Amino acid sequence: MNYQMTYHGTSPACCTTRSLCTSSKEVSILPFTKNGIAYTEANLTASVKAENNRCKDIPKLERLIEKSWICYTEKNPTLVNKLKFRLHTAEDDEENGVTHLHLGLTNCKEHLGTNCLLFPHDLRQLQTLGVLNNCDRRSYFAQWLGVGALILTPEKKYIFLRRSCECCEMRPLLDRASGCPDPEKVRLEPGECDLAKATSEDLVHEIFASVLRGITHEVGIPGDAIEDIEFLGLTFCKIKGERPTAEFHVKTPWPTQKIIWNYMNRRHKLCYNSCNIIFTSEEEVRNTPLNHSMFFKGLAPCGKGAILLLREQIRQLKEVERERARGPKV
């Protein structure tokens, strides 16, 4: 099903409308490919402002977030309330092929207390309050911006990970390598007032750098063995309050056996996030009908979204080829 939607925060007038596609009850996608050409670092700009932070005008909700954090830290004392970027707006300039990401700041505590609410009716209630109070159903959610990567090997296989019981989310599903950009990498600290010191170039570079870190930390492939980084678009995980993730497609020259050997050594930083590495053929990922694929059914929502974005890119490329075959219009 396709429908028109503007991805915006509290200022809808600043955004253009782009077709957001939903193919399951779990995930929606927002493609950023034009005529099959994915965006690169040069096609993105970004800014971070306090006005893009989560709305905090419901005292009861803020108290519940504090209580939920206490519960989480009692169960897992290693949890740290790290600063994260919040995606407020994706503003698209299709004519010039540029997308501007309007960012705010959030943290792990807000994420666990809003996007990770256990019951669907709680998520819906929070979305309804956002619409009623701010004309934005995401305004009370942390909307922590993550990144994910589909990694293609020289043998034309994509890499997926089986989430372990130690991973905080999506266990025991299959997923692509993932991570998140770090505000502290662009000199932003908790309680930071001067957000303007984080330039657009710094922010975009950190988003792309976080893709390499995520792959290194979760799979064990070093950043210098990653090539052809392309930004496919955004996914929105519906079962997590439409939490956004920027999805990328990358290639590695490392052969499959070397990747397996490195992964099995379990020396990478976040090796505990997964318990197995799985290689799936390019043909299955790109072409197998979704309703016939047991592999697809076993994927985490954002993993499904990443594949849907890739298939949208392929659809656009085929459409361009058909137009060329028809020849110029008379």
Describe this structure in words.
- It is a single chain.
- With 330 residues, the chain is α+β, with helices and mostly antiparallel strands.
- The protein has one domain: Nucleoside Triphosphate Pyrophosphohydrolase, CATH 3.90.79.10.
- The chain is 31% helix and 28% strand.
- The strands form 4 sheets. It has a 7-stranded mixed sheet. A 3-stranded mixed sheet has the order 6-8-7. The chain has a 3-stranded antiparallel sheet with strand order 11-10-15, sandwiched between helices.
- The chain is globular, with a radius of gyration of 20 Å.
- The two termini are 34 Å apart.
- The relative contact order is 0.18.
- The N terminus is likely disordered.
Second rung of CATH, namely the architecture: Alpha-Beta Complex
User: What's the total helix number?
Assistant: 8
> What is the total number of structural domains?
1
- CATH-assigned homologous superfamily: Nucleoside Triphosphate Pyrophosphohydrolase
Overall helicity: 25-40%
Low-confidence runs? 1-17
Mean pLDDT: 87
CATH topology description:
Nucleoside Triphosphate Pyrophosphohydrolase
CATH top level class name: Alpha Beta
Radius of gyration: 20 Å
Strand order of the largest sheet: 1-2-3-13-14-9-12
Helix/strand structural class: alpha+beta
Main sheet record: 7 strands, mixed
* Distance, first to last CA: 34 Å
Number of strands: 15
Beta-sheet strand percentage?
Answer: 25-35%
The helix-strand sequence is: EEEEEEHEEHHEEEEHEEHEHHH
